[in-house]
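Case 213 in the screening queue. Each case pairs one protein sequence with one candidate compound; here the compound is zinc ion. For every case the pipeline is the same: read the inputs, emit a complex structure as tokens, and attach any notable structural observations.

Predict complex for case 213.
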Amino acid sequence: MKIAFLSESPADEAVLRILVEGALKEKPTVASAGYRARGWPNVLQVLPAVIRHLHFNTDVDTLVVTGDSDDSPVHTTAHDAPQYYHPHCRMCQLRAVFRQTGKRFPAAHGRLRVRRVVGVAVPALEAWLLCGVEDSVNEAAWTEGQARGILPYTRAELKLRVYRTERPSLPHEIACAVREAERHRRDLRRLEYDFPGFAALLRDLREPIPEIS
Ligand SMILES: [Zn+2]
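Case 213 output:
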């Protein structure tokens, strides 16, 4: 398996690598996505170019993409209905880019298309990092808070709890993020249960690579 990652920052990518390795129980070959994104909506903007590049210029078979939900609506199972698309949901947006970009590509490098693996961290990746440490931090709590108009925590609070500072340097951010991600590596079940935006990523990862029939 050859994997490329696209996410909002180098710290996010370090976390994703660990979680994906944990899910696969092996170290996949990691390739460059050819582009780097900085925050949302940059991930969404460069994604079509990344898919095109990987499909035609590389033998990468899997592209893992994540973003933070921030203040956008959280993806629900209702969005998974066929033909449904929520225009402001980032999971729906990322999946739609995969669908639309790869639609007319001819098969290349022995596969029909690059396998789509998409996750969205609600409301930010730091929530995944706090999973299992702080019981109050989970996707349902955030979604309920959004519905009531009283959020259970802010993204800044989550960052402060993980990094112990409001303005972490990138090396410090990566070190803290990797430490927490390593906690999840051996057993992803809690993260999968508490964060459906991560469970969706795992489901995509279990799908077969689209082969030429
Ligand atoms: Zn959605």
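Case 213 observations:
- The two ends are 19 Å apart (CA to CA).
- Residues 75, 79, 86, 89, 91-92 surround zinc ion (CB under 6 Å).
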